[in-house]
Amino acid sequence: MQYDRFQKEAIGHIDNGYSVLVSAPTGAGKTAIAEYIIEKSIPQNQSIIYTAPIKALSNQKFRDFEKQFHDNVGILTGDVSINPHAPLLIMTTEIFRNKTIEEADSLKKYSWAIFDEIHYIDNYERGTVWEESLIFLPAHLKLLCLSATIPNISEFAAWLAKLHKTEIKIVCEEKRPVPLHFFFQFQNEIFDNINNIKFSPRQFRDYRHRRIYQKYKPAAHYNRLSTLIKHIAGENNLPLIYFVFARRKAEYLAEEISSYNFLDAEETEKITELFNELCSKLNLENEPSAKKIMPLVKRGVAYHHAGMLPTLKEAIEQLFTSRLIKVIFTTETFALGINMPARSVVFDAIKKFYGTFTTYLKTRDFFQMAGRAGRRGKDREGFVYLRLHPYDADPKEIRRIIYGRPENIKSQLNNSYATILNLYEKYGERITEVYSLSLHCFQSNRHSQKQAENLIKSKVSLLKDLGFIKNNLLSEKGHFAKAVYGYELILSELYETRFLENLDEEGLAILATAIVFEPRKNQEIIFLPKKAEEIKKRCKKITGDIKYREAKYKIRPFSKRPYFHLASSAEEWIKGSDFNKISALTDTDEGELIRYFRMGLQILKEINSSPASSYLLKERIQKTIKIINRDIIDAEKQLRG
Q1: What is the tens place of the pLDDT at every residue in 174-224?
Q2: 42: enclosing H helix or E strand
Q3: What CATH number did the domain enclosing 44 receive?
Q4: Which SMART domains does the record cross-reference, listed alphabetically (predicted)?
Q5: Domain total for the chain?
Q6: pLDDT tens per residue, range 427-484
Q7: Whether residues 474 and 496 fall in one domain
Q8: For FRET with 94, which of 228, 299, 393, 548 sits at 20 to 30 Å CA-CA?
Q9: Complete DSSP assignment for 113-158
């Protein structure tokens, strides 16, 4: 293989025995460095761990590496365990974190830990898992960290070097292998230079001047999708990935161009045959959602989002890699490390929802998606189109997104109660000393450090108050809780009162899905089965007490409470109903329903793995897992297939 400059530099450091941190644009070829380590290590009987931020990326890496390294590849996620003793083991970061804290000895045989998308440490919801994985990384493991462009890479490397008392080599690449050309759709015209656009005066974009805006707003010609698609197709800039930040809109826009046909007769025949083969292989022949998308597929159009059946998403991904899908409407997860390049990328909007508020895209997030434009070795340049609303487009923000410096990565550390319990078992009252090892401590001023230390102390005090820690030792309840990450408090209270042990298979399934479920805004429970009423009542009392105590100790955010929107579906699934029937009992998307069932399975597996769980509870949980994990819920079956 002919390596680029930055790849050669990284490989040189690897050959000299160093850990390496690589920062390069999306699509630059960072994975080739990981492949070099794998190709070098396996013949030398050295084992490698490869971690990825999401299960979809873990699954894709498993498929890709299995083609290259065959039986030498395994995967371990909350859903799947295939060939777990293989020399190359792919796992989600959560699984790796749990091993570093609870089963460090199981990592002795590994020589390298490869962290893909390491900038995920900046993610508000899951960054803590990445940080904990790096803090508790066994000393013998060498690191390869792969990241999108991050300006404070030297700071990040300095933290790792101080943490592990070893030199970390930094390799940076600023240049994209395929340069990007930016276009803008504004007032239904296509511009190739932002300076040629006549934006509305600032007051027409300012919410404080709405009355002026309503009275004097200039006439607008709204952007038409047909105008943009005709332009892109006419310039021979297909295939196209169209990013949209709402699932329903992805489907709606695909339907909007259903009158277009991007395929010739031969391509139509090929894609029809391939889609039918995939539907047969993935048991989709009778699925209404597969039948719904079929007319679009025959015209070279598709959509892809988390609400779809996982098997249908897989079929669409394979169609796209066949180059027969010319236009795909998708949400942003399509950009996260999944190798699906195109000639062009479109942004339906330049704002998105960031957990608690909607705002303009971060530069790093923008290029994570925009970087999918331009196929290395095939295109001289990639084309990126931004659709701008006449009254909601701030030219300053647009320039910042495209031409600004990517955001620094910052620690999002917020240790879970399970992590606190595991650390308390090892360090006792010296637990706050562990905080000094964190990126948060490394980046923060003394005031912020003190706040973080106080939060840890507050969590320890709450755990003592609730009886998880007694006489400076973990109680039976504490030993149970340390194995259940994220939902420790409520499950442990149900465990201590033997309520958990007295639930049958239906009750356990109802509880597990309620624990993990997050309803959409204003989503209502359609029907609550009688069996779920008592569980909900008990959970409400416990969560009320937990919230009161967390408020008392000034702990934020509050622990998640259960939501019983999937209770009817869970009950019917345990009774043996098929997936179409349980889907009809909820307004949750099919893909989300499967995801929550799989998350519920993971919770049950964690309870089952706890040494504090009784034989009776384990026996019932194992039976429940077996009943739930069938047909389309069985992720391992899908991956093996």
Answers
A1: 888 899 999 999 999 999 999 999 887 653 445 444 444 444 455 567 899
A2: none
A3: 3.40.50.300
A4: DEXDc, DSHCT, HELICc
A5: 4
A6: 999 999 999 999 999 999 999 999 999 999 999 999 999 999 999 999 999 999 999 9
A7: no
A8: 548
A9: EEETTGGGGG-TTTHHHHHHHHHT--TT-EEEEEES--TTHHHHHH
